[in-house]
Amino acid sequence: MPLQHLAGRVWLWPHDPDPDAIRGCVAVIADDRGSVIVDAGNSPDQARRIQQAIAAEQLPAPRWLTYTHNHWDHTWGACAWEDVEIVAHSAATAILEREAARPWSHAYLRDQVAANPKLGPSFRARALAMADWTGFKVVPPHRTFDGTLTLPTGVRLEHVGGSHAPDSLIVIDDESSVALLGDCFYPPPFHEREGDESTDFAMVRRLMKTGLEWYVDAHSAPRRMAGRLSGR
């Protein structure tokens, strides 16, 4: 699958529309100082496919990889990304260190679902993503921050939190007028929901105030703001 050019220096590896796959989009913000990768992919295999697509487009080699949050479908590809600095919000570290200590395998996934059936959708998707566990590991971030952080390429990371994950951040490329949102306005994962938790519309309204042209969450098609279609 080739990368899709969105705007300016932002390219996307699209999400999988099959909800059972739980494979979000991965973004590449290309810059001669080093590209920024937004989310690692849901497996080393997906990460390697994205690397091939980056090479095919002759984009600058990645130098930074940022997690929009700690969930597996955004972080499990990290062990296949080499020579990058992984950046995340500080709340991600302890969570990912705990995940890294778990004995991941297909047998472990089955045992966990047997103990807690609510894990079924997530853990079945993990099994589909991971044909081979050789060399797999969960990688905590190398660098963390609180609040905001601007990378040397001008890409801005902003912590927004929310109910989906406490470490949720958004990635903004003002040069391209693009905001990469991860899952910050989604409800919590199924096994963690209470009552009728649903889309965080207050978060959506907050994000829209940034006044950018493109908004990309991890599991939907990119959205373009009305009134920003031309004349930028």
Automatic annotation (TrEMBL):
SMART domains per UniProt: Lactamase_B (SM00849)
InterPro entries, A to Z: Metallo-B-lactamas, NDM-1-like, RibonucZ/Hydroxyglut_hydro
Gene3D superfamilies: Ribonuclease Z/Hydroxyacylglutathione hydrolase-like
Domain Metallo-beta-lactamase: 24-219
SUPFAM superfamilies attached to this UniProt entry: Metallo-hydrolase/oxidoreductase
Coiled coil ranges: none
Matches recorded under PANTHER family: ACYL-COENZYME A THIOESTERASE MBLAC2, METALLO-BETA-LACTAMASE DOMAIN-CONTAINING
Descriptive protein name: MBL fold metallo-hydrolase
